[in-house]
Design brief:
The protein has three domains: 47 residues, lambda repressor-like DNA-binding domains (434 Repressor (Amino-terminal Domain)); 128 residues, 3-Layer(aba) Sandwich (Rossmann fold), CATH 3.40.50; 136 residues, Rossmann fold (3-Layer(aba) Sandwich). 40% of the residues lie in helices and 19% in strands. It has a six-stranded parallel β-sheet, sandwiched between helices. A six-stranded mixed β-sheet has the order 7-6-8-9-10-12, sandwiched between helices. Helix 8 links the parallel strand 6 and strand 7. Helix 1 crosses helix 3 and helix 5 packs parallel to helix 12. The protein is elongated. Keywords: DNA-binding, Repressor, Transcription, Transcription regulation. This is Transcriptional regulator, LacI family. Pfam families: LacI (PF00356), Peripla_BP_3 (PF13377). GO terms for molecular function: DNA-binding transcription factor activity; transcription cis-regulatory region binding.
Length: 350
């Protein structure tokens, strides 16, 4: 036999108050309607005793909100390392009493448009449009029909929207400083970005290089060689490192533009009879699972996936609730350095 559904009237009856008073308490309007703390306590006690659950559909019709957020991504939910991004968004939504709907476009622009429109049709209160890797994109037109935010992406054309992205420029500076602080000033090579072979669709590639170049230029340091890669997978790192070793006679350190490239670089260095970090120090980006499994463990500048997801939802909720609206533009999230065992101090004579 089905359990009888508990109603607001049941709560009000047990608390000894009117149904209107109970409704004001549960909607957070007690102080506005000058309802006493004693009445509030009685209503909340009745809710616990009866295990009352408000009807979400009725509440949305009454308040004009659904307490739902849509997150539409390209391939982010199937990328293992990006699970923390979803986790951060879920935590922020749940803590504020919102449900997060997640959909994936698999990189298909038409499907992305359909998914965003489906979220709008289902009356979500706001939409997060997310990308697997940091890049510029053209947001679907229907995105403007709800409070919206870009996650790990920026608009390809000027648009008054908030973008939550990793602070890749400062991340590049962090990687360069890690080598400088260990005494590396000569024989430094780059793997992933180089003349004529830079991933121009990757904002991370451009901004990481910008940060690295800023630090080295300020210190009067020349990069010994830079080898670009069409993609950033281990075999690309292996090939690029072999090429760089032919160009640089005395290699001191490598900055790899992601951990997968670094995995290939480790193997290429071993092929050449060089040890990390005794012969060549290596620093990288992302803090992928590879970073802790290689030997020695890889020092890397971490992508703050959890913080990205959480910040995106929290900023979106400010707009949904009519609080201080975030100014359009990029909100950069700090990328921390994970110090492990791949950088060896190298001291120069005074």
């Amino acid at each position: 036999m089905a359990k009888k559904r508990v109603t607001l009237a049941d709560v009000a009856r047990l608390a000894g108050v009117s149904q209107t008073a109970a409704s004001f308490v549960l909607s957070g309007r007690r102080e506005d309607m000058r309802i006493s703390a004693d009445v509030e306590a009685r209503v909340l006690h009745a809710v616990r005793v009866l295990d009352y659950r408000p009807n979400a559909v009725s509440r949305s019709l009454r308040t004009g909100t659904t307490h739902t957020i849509g997150l539409v991504s390209d391939t982010i939910s199937t990328a293992p390392f990006a699970g923390h991004l979803i986790w951060g968004a879920l935590d922020a939504a749940r803590e504020h009493g919102y449900l997060l709907f997640i959909a994936e476009s698999e990189g298909d622009p038409e499907l992305e448009q359909e998914l965003v429109q489906a979220m709008v049709d289902r009356q979500v209160d706001g939409i997060v449009l997310a990308s697997m890797y940091t890049r510029a994109l053209l947001p679907p037109k229907s995105l403007g029909e709800r409070p919206s935010i870009l996650l790990n992406a920026v608009p390809a054309r000027p648009k008054p929207i908030v973008s939550v992205v990793p602070d890749e420029i400062e991340g590049g500076r962090t990687a360069a400083r890690a080598l400088l602080e260990a005494g590396h000033r000569e024989g430094i090579g780059l793997i992933g970005v180089g003349p004529g072979r830079t991933r121009t669709d990757s904002l991370a590639a451009i901004e990481r290089f910008q940060g690295i170049e800023e630090v080295f230029t300020a210190e009067g340091i020349d990069i010994a060689a830079a080898v670009g890669c069409d993609d950033w997978q281990p075999h690309h790192g292996w090939e690029a490192t072999h090429r760089l070793l032919r160009e640089v006679r005395e290699l001191s350190a490598l900055i790899c533009f992601n951990d997968r490239l670094a995995l290939g670089a480790y193997q290429a260095l071993a092929d050449a009879g060089l040890r990390v970090p005794d012969d060549v120090s290596v620093v990288s980006f992302d803090d992928d699972i590879y970073a802790t499994w290689v030997r020695p463990p890889l020092t890397t500048v971490a992508l703050p996936h959890y913080e990205l997801g959480r910040t995106a939802v929290e900023l979106l909720l400010k707009e949904i609730r009519g609080e201080r609206r975030p100014a359009p533009g990029r909100y950069r999230i700090r990328m921390p350095l994970r110090e492990r065992g791949s950088i060896r101090p190298r001291f120069h004579p005074a």
